[in-house]
Design brief:
Number of strands of chain B: 10
Strand content of chain A: over 45%
Shape of chain B: globular
Helix content of chain A: under 10%
Mean pLDDT of chain B: 89
Oligomer: heterodimer
Order of helices and strands of chain B: EEEEEEEEEE
Radius of gyration of chain B: 13 Å
Mean pLDDT of chain A: 92
Structural class of chain B: mainly beta
Distance between the termini of chain B: 23 Å
Shape of chain A: globular
Distance between the termini of chain A: 37 Å
Low-confidence stretches of chain A: none
Low-confidence stretches of chain B: 1-6
Chain lengths: 114, 112
């Protein structure tokens, strides 16, 4: 069984740039959620994708957007990067047969905005 | 225990002792709770979950207790090992949505 994989693992951007982060869900899972984790804090929900559509969104501005593809993989896009966007971005998959709602996380993408 | 704030609560225990990590959750409508373990540089790892129709659930060396009256959750780790050193998060899921709300975490250090 393949777990959740994310890429890239680390990246550095400058203010105003755009970034795309990628996630492959765990085998059999059809739902992908994205979380932002600032240093020393718990993860905060950005949004969730199910059947290629956004299925819930947290308190994040529209410059945070996403996609889900037919194979259930997903992308997180952030436009007009700000310094406060520096964080660990976590993808979590869930859903599918046998899953009762628990989230399974990838190792994250560490974004630094300079 | 966990709380929203600037400082990460810490807990130090001797190897072999039992650990208890506490969490106060905020939403009385939450009906599903998960404990996660996060090691440095890694993503959160699922430990154990519990639904609101239960007050106790046991796993391998771990037990989760849920007190809905006072909105309190605890994670008990038996015979704590050095490999248990990590930050532990409780996450709650209100039945109104798809998102989980995480606390700020408790840092557990196991002293050999």
């Amino acid at each position: 069984e393949t777990g959740v994989t994310q890429s890239p693992t680390h990246l550095i951007k400058t203010r105003g740039q755009q970034v795309t982060l990628r996630c492959s869900s765990q085998s059999g899972h059809n739902t992908v959620s994205w979380y932002q984790q600032a240093l020393g804090q718990g993860p905060q929900f950005i949004f969730q994708y199910y059947r290629e559509e956004e299925n819930g969104r947290g308190n994040f501005p529209p410059r945070f957007s996403g996609l889900q593809f037919p194979n259930y993989s997903s992308e997180l896009n952030v436009n007009a990067l700000e310094l406060d966007d520096s964080a660990l971005y976590l993808c979590a998959s869930s859903g599918g047969t046998g899953n009762t709602g628990e989230l399974f996380f990838g190792e994250g993408s560490r974004l630094t905005v300079l | 225990g966990e709380s929203v704030g600037l400082h990460l609560p810490t807990l130090s225990v001797q190897e072999g002792d039992n650990s208890i990590i506490n969490c106060a959750y905020s939403n009385s409508a939450s009906d599903y709770f998960i404990w996660y373990k996060q090691e440095s540089g890694k993503g959160p790892q699922f430990i154990i979950d519990i639904r609101s129709n239960m007050d106790k659930r046991q796993g391998q060396r771990v037990t989760v207790l849920l007190n809905k009256t006072v909105k309190h959750l605890s994670l008990q780790i038996a015979a704590t090992q050095p490999g248990d050193s990590a930050v532990y998060f409780c996450a709650e899921n209100p039945n109104t949505g798809n998102q989980f709300y995480f606390g700020t975490g408790t840092s557990l250090t196991v002293i050999p």
